[in-house]
Design goal:
Blueprint lengths: L11 E6 L10 E6 L2 H10 L6 E5 L14 E12 L5 E17 L7 E5 L18 H15 L5 H6 L2 H11 L4 H9 L3 H16 L4 H4 L2
Parallel strand pairs: 1-3
Antiparallel strand pairs: 1-6, 2-5, 3-4, 4-5, 5-6
Helix pairs in contact: 2-6, 4-6, 5-6
Pfam family, one: LON_substr_bdg
Organism: Litoreibacter albidus
InterPro entries: Lon_prtase_N, Lon_prtase_N_sf, PUA-like_sf
Length: about 220
């Protein structure tokens, strides 16, 4: 996927609220679309030059309001196929995080928002590095977590993965609560995300809850 410049990013994007679905810059998220409103969103997005969809977490509220977290991540549609029964299988490649300025009301069946990109300029650059990353120690911790959760993975692939791809992929795939995923999304740097990820894994191994972890 070609690099985007800040000037390429639109002021308004469609939103796809999906609990627990995390997208990060330069990472890939496979999705399946079947609801009519999102099928319409997908078809509309393909007509735009950027082909961006904003992934955002619904906000858990006590009154049941249909609110969203203010920070999400926009991805470009880079692959898609249509099934015989009318669903779309697509892949979003993360471009940049954004902050919702305000939702746009209109006649669309799906949600749209005016967004701001300025706080996330590093997302459009090259892959981040993490000078303080102790890979052997982290992999040992990860092995304990995967064993406890009865998860399988390609350990050889993880050992060879670039640091950003490793941290971001695990952040997206590990079975964390939506609020925990949001904390990983909002981490300002790769090092901060790795530290958050490590904390979440350690709390999980000790039987901690999401609320305890994020206090």
């Amino acid at each position: 996927m070609r690099m985007m410049n800040p000037a390429d990013l639109p002021d308004t994007i469609p939103l796809f609220p999906l609990p627990g679905a995390l997208l990060l810059p330069r990472a890939r998220l496979p999705l399946q679309l079947f609801e009519p409103r999102y099928l319409q969103m997908f078809e509309d997005v393909l007509k735009t030059p950027q082909r961006l969809i904003g992934m955002v977490q619904p906000l858990r509220t006590v009154d049941g309001d249909d609110k969203l977290h203010t920070v999400g991540c926009a991805g470009r549609v880079t692959q898609f196929s249509e099934t015989e029964d009318g669903r779309y299988m697509m892949t979003l490649t993360g471009v940049s995080r954004f902050e919702i300025a305000q939702e746009v009301t209109g006649f669309s069946a799906y949600r749209n928002a005016d967004v701001m990109w300025s706080a996330f300029g590093r997302d459009l650059g090259k892959a981040e590095t993490d000078a303080g990353f102790d890979r052997p120690k982290f992999m040992n911790l990860l092995k304990k977590f995967f064993d406890a959760e009865e998860l399988r993975t390609d350990w050889d692939g993880l050992k060879e993965a670039e640091t950003e791809m490793l941290i971001n992929t695990l952040s997206m795939l590990c079975p964390f609560e939506p609020e925990e995923k949001q904390a990983l999304l909002e981490a300002p740097t790769l090092a901060a995300r790795r530290e958050t990820l490590t904390t979440l894994i350690e709390f999980s191994l000790r039987g901690g809850t999401a609320e305890e972890t994020l206090q």
